[in-house]
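Throughout our pipeline, every protein is held as a single compact record rather than as scattered files. This encoding replaces a full spatial description with a residue-level series of whole-number codes. The remainder of this section carries one protein's record, kept here as part of the documentation.
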Amino acid sequence: MTLSLPTRVRPLLVSLALVASAPSCNGEDASCVPNETRACACAPGRDGVQVCAATGDAYSSCDCGAPPDGSLADGGPPPTDTDARVPEGDAGVLRCRDFGPVRAFPGAVGFGAGAVGGRGGQVLIVDTLADDGPGSLREALEASGPRTVVFEVAGTIVLQSSLRISEGNVTVAGQSAPGGGVALRTAEHVTSPAILSSADEVVIRYLRVRPGPSTELSNSVDAITVSGGQNIVLANNSFSWAVDENINLWYDASDITVQDNLISEALFMSTHTYGAPHSKGFIAGPDNARISLVRNVFASNDDRNPLMGCGAPYELINNIGYNGYQVGASMALREGTRVNFIGNVYLAGPMHRPSRYQVIVYGADDGPLVPESIFVRDNLTPRADPSDDWAVMGWGGIHGGDYNGSPLPETVRAATPFEMSDAPAAPIPAAELVDRLLPTVGASLPQRDAVDARVVEDIRNGTGGLIDDPSEVGGWPELAAGTAPADADRDGMPDAWEMARGLDPSDPGDAIEDRDGDGYTNLEERLECP
């Protein structure tokens, strides 16, 4: 792919030349106010910053921050992907570029992309791994008003009850954590979801949510349940080890994007009320509306990878399913259903049963089939036929249950894709998807943990299986604590980051300002470009 760089982008050498011509630290610069900052010239249209030394006798050289095209310091190639942050291999090294249209975050797509989350609100800093109390994640989520939650600690929070989000306009920025990031698990007595959200305008990113089995039987131990609300985004999270579903969308929740998540290893023979094998990846209920599932990986869940039961438009684009036992994706057709199923890949693993379709469509209601309700293009499964896009998909009958299936009825097949959200995803060719998605899917920032690394290797190597208990695969890993960078004004932006961009590290109010007028606040830009 060829990318035309913005006109403001200049080679690194230009920046270096301009730095060389910036005001010197001699002559008229011989004295200054300690720690005072001033602007200096970098590339055209872009200022750097100088900081007066603590001795008051000289300014520093001009700090221009990262090169203006967001490339690496060695002048590496410009980004070529559609996201604001572009992976450099599997190490999670990312570069920044222009952010494009204002969405929940740069690169958000689908029906939930317009979510504002906590934009423009207060910054709440999580500085303890305690379940509740001052500085806890629970306190931040239960607060009211627009708010962005950032982290000064890393490690695992053991929840003594569900984290409830009933007050909307909140962004949880897990990528801000130091060390190995933040994980959530539930204490053994908890019989409800790790996270239960019913609010509007919720954005959750880069968390690891792994509840684990409960001591009492329950059909509600999900990693996250979204039981209401509009404009919701779950992005780059890792959800696993739920007793029921890893992700549960229910009631009238709508306008939701679930993108770039790793959804794996829901527990098989665990403590579910049914007392039978469960292990479900994802469910959307009959009253949900306008759902986008984009670039997610479903790995080693028995079933529901995903199960879409809603009767309104939804789209499944560029998802990977691996090692499902019952079935991969299941989609119910009911009045009002419109589906785009594009560029998805379902891979056989050790649990795969060749006699079954990996993608099943069924009629949710008695009565005539909904005509032209599903569009299919460029998907790969063990049954894929290059000459027939529809070969990947079987008909499960009315009310489902026939996983062996038969060809999809002609009546429901649509010849052209449906118009969906105002922020459509640009599909990646299915043949490229595994190589492009696995390096950064899930909670890959600040670094991928041992659970996700193992699951990704299972997909690459064709290994792994269904598990009954986290202890079978090593349990919850210990996450490195790390050290958060200095942030004197407690605005979520490190002092060094602010000074490099001409902001005031003693002014907490500049977090919600927009220094470059692109619609994203300074805090949002810091979260994208650490």
